[in-house]
Amino acid sequence: MNIGDAAQASGLPPKTIRYYEDIGLVQPDRRGNNYRDYSDTHVHNLQFLARARSLGFSIEECRQLLSLYGDRCRASGDVKAIAIRHISEIERKIAELQAMHDTLSSLVEACHGDHRPDCPILKDLAGDRT
Amino acid sequence: MNIGDAAQASGLPPKTIRYYEDIGLVQPDRRGNNYRDYSDTHVHNLQFLARARSLGFSIEECRQLLSLYGDRCRASGDVKAIAIRHISEIERKIAELQAMHDTLSSLVEACHGDHRPDCPILKDLAGDRT
DNA sequence: GATAAGGGTTCCAGCTACTGGAAAGTCAAG
DNA sequence: CTTGACTTTCCAGTAGCTGGAACCCTTATC
Protein backbone atom coordinates (compact mmCIF):
# COMPACT_ATOMS: atom_id res chain seq x y z
CA MET A 1 0.00 0.00 0.00
CA ASN A 2 1.38 3.43 -0.97
CA ILE A 3 1.75 6.22 1.52
CA GLY A 4 -1.26 8.07 0.12
CA ASP A 5 -3.52 5.11 0.79
CA ALA A 6 -2.02 4.63 4.23
CA ALA A 7 -2.76 8.30 4.85
CA GLN A 8 -6.36 7.82 3.78
CA ALA A 9 -6.75 4.74 5.94
CA SER A 10 -5.15 6.25 9.04
CA GLY A 11 -6.32 9.82 8.76
CA LEU A 12 -2.75 11.06 9.05
CA PRO A 13 -1.14 13.27 6.39
CA PRO A 14 1.68 11.67 4.38
CA LYS A 15 4.12 14.19 5.83
CA THR A 16 3.30 13.02 9.32
CA ILE A 17 3.64 9.38 8.36
CA ARG A 18 7.09 10.03 6.93
CA TYR A 19 7.96 11.88 10.10
CA TYR A 20 6.86 8.93 12.20
CA GLU A 21 9.15 6.77 10.12
CA ASP A 22 12.03 9.21 10.66
CA ILE A 23 11.69 8.97 14.40
CA GLY A 24 11.32 5.22 14.28
CA LEU A 25 7.65 4.75 15.09
CA VAL A 26 6.41 2.90 12.01
CA GLN A 27 8.95 1.56 9.53
CA PRO A 28 7.38 0.44 6.28
CA ASP A 29 9.01 -1.78 3.66
CA ARG A 30 10.27 -0.39 0.38
CA ARG A 31 9.20 -1.48 -3.06
CA GLY A 32 11.40 -1.74 -6.13
CA ASN A 33 10.70 1.85 -7.12
CA ASN A 34 11.74 3.02 -3.66
CA TYR A 35 8.14 3.79 -2.73
CA ARG A 36 7.14 3.01 0.84
CA ASP A 37 4.95 -0.06 1.20
CA TYR A 38 2.53 -0.25 4.11
CA SER A 39 1.07 -3.54 5.26
CA ASP A 40 -2.21 -3.83 7.15
CA THR A 41 -0.25 -4.03 10.38
CA HIS A 42 1.60 -0.82 9.54
CA VAL A 43 -1.68 0.92 8.84
CA HIS A 44 -3.15 -0.46 12.02
CA ASN A 45 -0.25 0.97 13.98
CA LEU A 46 -0.69 4.31 12.26
CA GLN A 47 -4.33 4.32 13.29
CA PHE A 48 -3.24 3.45 16.80
CA LEU A 49 -0.90 6.43 16.78
CA ALA A 50 -3.54 8.76 15.38
CA ARG A 51 -5.92 7.79 18.14
CA ALA A 52 -3.29 8.04 20.88
CA ARG A 53 -2.18 11.45 19.62
CA SER A 54 -5.77 12.64 19.50
CA LEU A 55 -6.00 11.75 23.18
CA GLY A 56 -3.06 14.03 23.82
CA PHE A 57 -0.34 11.47 24.43
CA SER A 58 3.13 12.74 23.56
CA ILE A 59 5.18 11.03 20.90
CA GLU A 60 7.31 9.34 23.53
CA GLU A 61 4.24 8.11 25.35
CA CYS A 62 2.90 6.85 22.04
CA ARG A 63 6.14 5.01 21.49
CA GLN A 64 5.77 3.29 24.84
CA LEU A 65 2.12 2.50 24.27
CA LEU A 66 2.85 1.08 20.85
CA SER A 67 5.59 -1.05 22.33
CA LEU A 68 3.25 -2.33 25.04
CA TYR A 69 0.62 -2.90 22.40
CA GLY A 70 2.97 -5.17 20.52
CA ASP A 71 4.10 -6.99 23.65
CA ARG A 72 1.95 -10.02 24.39
CA CYS A 73 3.46 -10.30 27.85
CA ARG A 74 2.66 -6.73 28.83
CA ALA A 75 1.00 -5.88 32.12
CA SER A 76 -2.10 -3.71 31.82
CA GLY A 77 -0.82 -1.92 34.93
CA ASP A 78 1.99 -0.41 32.85
CA VAL A 79 -0.49 0.98 30.36
CA LYS A 80 -2.71 2.26 33.11
CA ALA A 81 0.21 4.03 34.79
CA ILE A 82 1.01 5.93 31.60
CA ALA A 83 -2.63 6.88 31.18
CA ILE A 84 -2.96 8.04 34.77
CA ARG A 85 0.14 10.20 34.53
CA HIS A 86 -1.24 11.69 31.34
CA ILE A 87 -4.59 12.39 32.98
CA SER A 88 -2.85 14.30 35.78
CA GLU A 89 -1.02 16.35 33.22
CA ILE A 90 -4.29 17.12 31.45
CA GLU A 91 -5.88 18.12 34.73
CA ARG A 92 -2.97 20.42 35.45
CA LYS A 93 -3.37 22.08 32.07
CA ILE A 94 -7.10 22.45 32.49
CA ALA A 95 -6.64 24.08 35.88
CA GLU A 96 -4.06 26.45 34.43
CA LEU A 97 -6.34 27.41 31.55
CA GLN A 98 -9.31 27.73 33.86
CA ALA A 99 -7.40 30.17 36.05
CA MET A 100 -6.50 32.27 33.01
CA HIS A 101 -10.08 32.09 31.88
CA ASP A 102 -11.48 33.29 35.21
CA THR A 103 -9.07 36.19 35.45
CA LEU A 104 -9.66 37.27 31.88
CA SER A 105 -13.41 36.94 32.16
CA SER A 106 -13.61 39.26 35.11
CA LEU A 107 -11.31 41.75 33.40
CA VAL A 108 -13.37 41.67 30.22
CA GLU A 109 -16.51 42.14 32.21
CA ALA A 110 -15.07 45.20 33.91
CA CYS A 111 -14.02 46.77 30.59
CA HIS A 112 -16.64 48.96 29.00
CA GLY A 113 -14.98 48.38 25.64
CA ASP A 114 -15.78 51.55 23.77
CA HIS A 115 -13.64 54.24 22.14
CA ARG A 116 -12.38 55.63 25.44
CA PRO A 117 -8.80 54.79 26.44
CA ASP A 118 -9.50 53.84 30.06
CA CYS A 119 -9.15 50.05 30.29
CA PRO A 120 -9.13 47.71 33.32
CA ILE A 121 -7.49 44.96 31.25
CA LEU A 122 -4.42 47.05 30.49
CA LYS A 123 -4.45 48.30 34.05
CA ASP A 124 -4.20 44.76 35.32
CA LEU A 125 -1.46 43.85 32.89
CA ALA A 126 0.43 46.97 33.99
CA GLY A 127 0.38 45.70 37.54
CA ASP A 128 -2.52 47.67 38.94
CA ARG A 129 -4.61 44.99 40.71
CA THR A 130 -7.02 47.35 42.44
CA MET B 1 19.98 48.81 35.23
CA ASN B 2 21.74 45.62 34.07
CA ILE B 3 19.88 42.69 32.60
CA GLY B 4 20.25 40.67 35.79
CA ASP B 5 18.47 43.33 37.81
CA ALA B 6 15.79 43.71 35.17
CA ALA B 7 15.33 39.96 35.37
CA GLN B 8 14.94 40.14 39.14
CA ALA B 9 12.49 42.98 38.87
CA SER B 10 10.37 41.45 36.14
CA GLY B 11 10.55 37.80 37.09
CA LEU B 12 11.73 36.89 33.59
CA PRO B 13 15.02 35.06 32.98
CA PRO B 14 17.76 37.06 31.24
CA LYS B 15 17.60 34.68 28.28
CA THR B 16 13.94 35.52 27.78
CA ILE B 17 14.59 39.24 28.08
CA ARG B 18 17.26 39.04 25.38
CA TYR B 19 14.85 37.05 23.26
CA TYR B 20 12.20 39.74 23.68
CA GLU B 21 14.75 42.26 22.49
CA ASP B 22 15.60 40.08 19.47
CA ILE B 23 11.99 40.04 18.36
CA GLY B 24 11.59 43.74 19.03
CA LEU B 25 9.39 43.78 22.12
CA VAL B 26 11.57 45.70 24.56
CA GLN B 27 14.66 47.46 23.26
CA PRO B 28 16.96 48.65 26.01
CA ASP B 29 19.74 51.22 25.63
CA ARG B 30 23.39 50.20 25.61
CA ARG B 31 26.04 51.46 27.93
CA GLY B 32 29.66 52.16 27.06
CA ASN B 33 30.72 48.59 27.81
CA ASN B 34 28.01 47.25 25.51
CA TYR B 35 25.91 46.10 28.44
CA ARG B 36 22.16 46.48 28.10
CA ASP B 37 20.70 49.29 30.19
CA TYR B 38 17.09 49.00 31.34
CA SER B 39 15.12 52.04 32.48
CA ASP B 40 12.14 51.86 34.82
CA THR B 41 9.87 52.04 31.80
CA HIS B 42 11.66 49.10 30.19
CA VAL B 43 11.28 47.09 33.38
CA HIS B 44 7.65 48.09 33.59
CA ASN B 45 7.08 46.81 30.08
CA LEU B 46 8.84 43.56 30.91
CA GLN B 47 6.52 43.12 33.88
CA PHE B 48 3.60 43.85 31.58
CA LEU B 49 4.82 41.13 29.24
CA ALA B 50 5.36 38.63 32.04
CA ARG B 51 1.79 39.19 33.22
CA ALA B 52 0.30 39.01 29.74
CA ARG B 53 2.24 35.82 28.96
CA SER B 54 1.11 34.28 32.22
CA LEU B 55 -2.46 34.89 31.08
CA GLY B 56 -1.68 32.90 27.96
CA PHE B 57 -1.51 35.69 25.39
CA SER B 58 0.73 34.84 22.45
CA ILE B 59 3.79 36.91 21.72
CA GLU B 60 1.99 38.63 18.87
CA GLU B 61 -0.97 39.44 21.07
CA CYS B 62 1.45 40.76 23.68
CA ARG B 63 2.98 42.98 21.04
CA GLN B 64 -0.42 44.42 20.21
CA LEU B 65 -1.35 44.85 23.86
CA LEU B 66 1.93 46.56 24.59
CA SER B 67 1.39 48.86 21.66
CA LEU B 68 -2.11 49.71 22.85
CA TYR B 69 -0.74 50.20 26.35
CA GLY B 70 1.67 52.81 25.05
CA ASP B 71 -0.98 54.53 22.96
CA ARG B 72 -2.79 57.26 24.86
CA CYS B 73 -5.43 57.47 22.18
CA ARG B 74 -6.27 53.79 22.27
CA ALA B 75 -9.83 52.56 22.44
CA SER B 76 -10.50 50.10 25.24
CA GLY B 77 -12.72 48.25 22.75
CA ASP B 78 -9.59 47.19 20.86
CA VAL B 79 -8.09 45.69 24.00
CA LYS B 80 -11.33 44.00 24.89
CA ALA B 81 -11.59 42.46 21.44
CA ILE B 82 -8.18 40.86 21.79
CA ALA B 83 -9.06 39.55 25.24
CA ILE B 84 -12.36 38.13 24.07
CA ARG B 85 -10.75 36.33 21.17
CA HIS B 86 -8.19 34.93 23.56
CA ILE B 87 -10.88 33.76 25.95
CA SER B 88 -12.60 31.87 23.15
CA GLU B 89 -9.34 30.19 22.31
CA ILE B 90 -8.88 29.20 25.94
CA GLU B 91 -12.41 27.82 26.05
CA ARG B 92 -11.71 25.80 22.95
CA LYS B 93 -8.59 24.32 24.50
CA ILE B 94 -10.35 23.54 27.76
CA ALA B 95 -13.12 21.74 25.91
CA GLU B 96 -10.55 19.76 23.94
CA LEU B 97 -8.68 18.77 27.08
CA GLN B 98 -11.90 17.97 28.88
CA ALA B 99 -12.94 15.60 26.12
CA MET B 100 -9.59 13.82 26.31
CA HIS B 101 -9.93 13.71 30.07
CA ASP B 102 -13.37 12.15 29.97
CA THR B 103 -12.39 9.50 27.48
CA LEU B 104 -9.21 8.62 29.32
CA SER B 105 -10.94 8.55 32.68
CA SER B 106 -13.48 6.01 31.57
CA LEU B 107 -10.79 3.90 29.96
CA VAL B 108 -8.63 4.00 33.07
CA GLU B 109 -11.61 3.08 35.15
CA ALA B 110 -12.29 0.07 32.98
CA CYS B 111 -8.70 -1.15 33.19
CA HIS B 112 -7.98 -3.48 36.08
CA GLY B 113 -4.32 -2.47 35.90
CA ASP B 114 -2.59 -5.58 37.14
CA HIS B 115 0.01 -7.90 35.63
CA ARG B 116 -2.41 -9.40 33.10
CA PRO B 117 -2.05 -8.28 29.47
CA ASP B 118 -5.73 -7.68 28.79
CA CYS B 119 -6.23 -3.91 28.62
CA PRO B 120 -9.25 -1.79 27.57
CA ILE B 121 -7.01 1.23 27.05
CA LEU B 122 -4.94 -0.47 24.39
CA LYS B 123 -8.10 -1.96 22.95
CA ASP B 124 -9.54 1.49 22.49
CA LEU B 125 -6.35 2.84 20.95
CA ALA B 126 -6.33 -0.13 18.59
CA GLY B 127 -9.73 0.88 17.33
CA ASP B 128 -11.95 -1.45 19.33
CA ARG B 129 -14.64 0.88 20.76
CA THR B 130 -16.91 -1.77 22.17
C1' DG C 1 50.01 43.42 39.12
C1' DA C 2 47.94 38.79 38.77
C1' DT C 3 43.95 36.31 39.32
C1' DA C 4 39.50 34.50 40.30
C1' DA C 5 34.51 35.08 40.72
C1' DG C 6 30.47 36.64 38.98
C1' DG C 7 28.46 39.49 35.98
C1' DG C 8 27.81 40.48 30.89
C1' DT C 9 28.15 39.60 25.42
C1' DT C 10 27.35 36.88 20.93
C1' DC C 11 26.10 32.96 18.33
C1' DC C 12 24.58 28.31 17.44
C1' DA C 13 21.88 24.34 18.52
C1' DG C 14 17.93 22.00 20.33
C1' DC C 15 13.30 21.29 22.22
C1' DT C 16 7.76 19.40 20.19
C1' DA C 17 5.44 17.68 16.42
C1' DC C 18 4.91 18.61 12.60
C1' DT C 19 4.34 21.50 7.92
C1' DG C 20 5.62 23.84 3.51
C1' DG C 21 8.19 23.94 -0.47
C1' DA C 22 11.70 22.81 -4.03
C1' DA C 23 13.62 19.59 -7.30
C1' DA C 24 13.42 15.35 -9.15
C1' DG C 25 11.83 10.40 -10.00
C1' DT C 26 7.57 7.14 -11.15
C1' DC C 27 3.31 5.63 -12.91
C1' DA C 28 -1.23 5.36 -15.44
C1' DA C 29 -4.29 7.49 -18.82
C1' DG C 30 -5.28 9.58 -23.12
C1' DC D 1 4.42 11.51 -25.78
C1' DT D 2 2.76 14.27 -22.69
C1' DT D 3 0.10 15.45 -18.76
C1' DG D 4 -1.09 15.04 -14.11
C1' DA D 5 -1.04 12.80 -9.88
C1' DC D 6 1.81 10.61 -6.89
C1' DT D 7 6.17 9.64 -4.85
C1' DT D 8 11.07 10.58 -3.23
C1' DT D 9 14.68 13.47 -0.53
C1' DC D 10 16.22 17.42 1.73
C1' DC D 11 16.05 21.97 3.79
C1' DA D 12 13.75 25.38 6.38
C1' DG D 13 10.33 27.23 9.36
C1' DT D 14 6.70 27.33 13.08
C1' DA D 15 6.36 29.14 19.07
C1' DG D 16 8.83 30.52 22.71
C1' DC D 17 12.16 29.93 24.68
C1' DT D 18 16.54 27.30 26.81
C1' DG D 19 21.35 25.37 27.16
C1' DG D 20 25.98 25.80 26.14
C1' DA D 21 30.39 27.50 24.30
C1' DA D 22 33.65 31.07 23.97
C1' DC D 23 34.77 35.37 25.10
C1' DC D 24 34.59 40.32 27.43
C1' DC D 25 33.93 43.49 31.76
C1' DT D 26 34.09 44.64 36.66
C1' DT D 27 35.31 44.16 41.25
C1' DA D 28 37.75 42.15 45.06
C1' DT D 29 41.50 39.93 46.96
C1' DC D 30 46.27 38.39 47.49
UniProtKB/TrEMBL annotation, chains A, B:
Swiss-Prot/TrEMBL GO biological process terms: positive regulation of DNA-templated transcription
Main location class: cytoplasm
Segments forming a coiled coil: 80-107
One GO MF term attached to the UniProt entry: copper ion binding
Keyword Transcription attached: yes
Top-level taxonomic group: Bacteria
Protein name (record): Cu(I)-responsive transcriptional regulator
Organism: Afifella marina DSM 2698
